[in-house]
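Archive entry: two folds, one per protein. Generate the first.
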Amino acid sequence: MQELSSRDMSLRDAKPAMGHGLGYACRTARAWWYSAWLRTLARFSRTTLGSFWMGLSNLLSVGVLGVVYGTVLKVADPLRYIIYLGFGVTIWGLVSMASLAGSTLFLLRRDQLVNNAMPSIFYCLEEWAFQLQTFAQAFVVVLLAFALIDPGLLLNAVHYIWLPLLNLFLFTFWIIVLMAVLGARFKDFAQLMPILLQLLFLVSPILYKREGLGELSVLADFNPFYQALAPVRDSLIDGQIQLGDELLSLAINTIGVLIAVGALKWVRYRLPLWV
């Protein structure tokens, strides 16, 4: 009995089981970033334009949505509205796709979780890097296209976007981890997420101004997805940030990342049974 107990402790103290913290994430950064980049290259490996298709398809979608909703809503300045909508839709794409991918992440990586000693945080980091790379290619194309309409957007991007963008990226990481754990534990969660995201999109001021919600604008205040999106868009369009709010968001997102990493370590022995 004592021998079994010591063997169990030796398994729990093994190095692969301890590779769940931020130190491990830093040590393996080149591995999970490169692995995500290979996925990005593989998506359009047989095309002529390659990954440029991500930015182009997003730009075309934004243009069509801007024209249609600008006409339906009878906006006074169609070009400014397209910029407003374009940044909102592009940033929402990062948050929503990260959430959807996270909800099925561990289910799709079941074989690796069961058969390999690779820590679960590696798969979360790889998915996070993949989503950031996809977002970057779409965002840069949209930003450069909109800069032809308003060159001041590039100056705003250089001076004001960095802190809101950091908060957006940190938020995306712990959301992926949260969705991945919930998706592994509750099998219906992955089916519920598209519905929730669609509802959140409709009640978020992305296709319309916040003032359009009227008394329901409180919904935007309690929508964490919109709260991560709005500062990035506002810093680009208005050329200013709310420093106090951004520092508070940075503290909250840092705590979220630490809790997410701790949760992965806490459930590391349960995950193979859940999936």
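Generate the second and append.
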Amino acid sequence: MTDFDVDAFLRQPLTARIATNGPTVRPVWFLWEDGAFWILTGPWARLVHRVREDPAVALVVDECDPATGLVRQVIARGEAELVAFDVPRGRRKLTRYLGTDEGRWDPRFVHYLHDDPAERGTVWLRLRPASLSVQDLSYVVAR
């Protein structure tokens, strides 16, 4: 096992999986910023209701490439909170997954940035990890 740059890893457009009470696990896009995971959500998703009922969550971001032997993971646990949506952070998050040309984005993503968050109900789920487990389980691929 070797060390790796966790911030650089979490800046990649990877998909995380977040677990809530139930248990329920769902894939999510995220932004790692200011020591927290930021996940765009709203009343259209059960995630908001589950976090209001019980804010304890776990989140995993990982990658596994058998061709190269690259296997890394970050597991976060803590109390999630729902906070007001802000467009600049929303743009940073969506740009990392969809690119900088908003004209090429699917309209449903553009709406997050231009609709009134209060009317639509868009919020951030913010997870400032109480614990963060980081592992590099990479291996050498025999050639």
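Annotation attached to the second fold: The two ends are 20 Å apart (CA to CA). The longest helix spans residues 87-98.
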